[in-house]
Design goal:
Length: about 350
């Protein structure tokens, strides 16, 4: 089938360059064309909170990874266009194996998910044959397939507490979330993989303390469902900022808190894409990033050009081996059943 576009010449503008596909601007014509192509393909567009504002604005649904995966499973459309990073699109595919899942640029990875691969996990398990594996949701489908229980940061403590106290636990891949869980549970038989998200390196203790001192009346919102903010979660627990000013919130909770806050200024410890939704929810509040360089370059690879290419060409399709998907689904299902899993990153 030949696709005739109403927006002539748009496809020829797309080119592959540093940082992904570019050459197309997010104009109202672009947005109209995206909507039209999505309808033509019978697709629904999902965008993660860390996406560029233009991508968030053109999407049918915006949210965190777990919420979007649930929406993908329940959507009447057979095609899901997942604007986020690759492990998130894989999780959507794991939960909806019969649907076509597209990601606008399959090179959009995640440094935290990439900090452990299946081979490394197999070796770690072989060295600890009686241990149970708990994986944060930022992992590849293959690693999820080798995992006993996945967790989000909202239910990581509950997940670890649900395991027989005499059983060894292997926790991966986020060392900050692991350290937080170990401190809260007081568990000694828990090994932690030394993985991290490079974006959170920007949200370090000095920066957090300095920003909090410079704005003593501001509240601090921490979104722990993100590798880039787990260090903030850890530091808040260490007393780096006054406890009464800190709110640890899921994305939904953060938006609710933004609507009712009495503070004129709120510091936000998360990836900066989240500021777009917060400013829309509470335009009178001055939201400031703890570090405005905390931007995930992988998330920003989903450009207007990449989304246009995706809808024009039906690329890139996400595939997960069926057997692996079944095993991964089990570990994700157990995650959903324990405590309150929140929304994933
Ligand atoms: S912010 Fe960090 S954890 Fe989140 S997708 Fe980007 S690299 Fe991965």
């Amino acid at each position: 089938m030949t696709t005739t576009t109403l927006w002539e010449g748009s496809a020829s503008q797309i080119h592959d360059g540093p940082g992904g596909y570019n050459g197309v601007e997010a104009t109202p014509e672009w947005a109209a064309e995206i909507k039209r192509l999505a309808r033509e393909r019978g697709a629904t567009i999902l965008a993660h909170n860390y996406q560029l504002p233009a991508i968030q604005d053109v999407a049918d649904h915006v949210g965190d990874s777990l919420a979007l995966s649930r929406i993908a499973a329940e959507a009447p459309e057979d095609t899901i266009v997942f604007c986020g990073v690759h492990f998130m699109a894989e999780t959507a595919k794991i939960l909806s194996p019969s649907k076509t899942v597209l990601i606008p640029d399959e090179r959009a990875g995640c440094s935290l998910a990439d900090s452990i691969n299946a081979e490394q996990l197999r070796e770690w398990k072989a060295d600890n044959p009686n241990a149970l594996v708990v994986s944060y949701v930022n992992t590849t489908a293959e690693v999820k397939g080798l995992t006993d229980i996945c967790c989000t940061s909202s239910n990581a403590v509950d997940v670890v507490n649900s395991i027989d106290p005499d059983r060894e636990v292997l926790f991966l891949p986020d060392q900050f979330l692991g350290a937080h869980v170990k401190r809260v549970t007081g568990r000694t038989n828990m090994q932690i993989w030394a993985g991290e998200c490079h974006v959170h390196a920007g949200i370090n203790g000095d920066e957090l303390t300095a920003k909090s001192k410079a704005h003593p009346d501001a509240e601090l919102f921490v979104h722990p469902e993100c590798g880039c903010a787990t260090s903030a979660l850890y530091l808040a627990g260490e007393g780096a900022v006054p406890a009464d000013k800190v709110k640890i919130l899921s994305t939904g909770g953060m938006l609710d808190a933004a609507r009712v806050t009495k503070s004129k200024q709120v510091l936000v410890a998360t990836e900066i894409g989240m500021l777009h939704q917060l400013r829309k929810a509470a335009p009178d509040v001055d939201f400031q990033a703890v570090n405005d360089r905390a931007s995930c370059p992988y998330m920003k690879m989903i450009t207007p050009a990449a989304l246009l290419r995706c809808l024009l060409e039906g690329k890139d399709e996400v595939h997960v081996d069926l057997e692996m998907a079944k095993r991964a689904q089990k570990s994700v299902q157990r995650m959903i059943e324990i405590g309150n899993p929140g929304g994933g990153e």
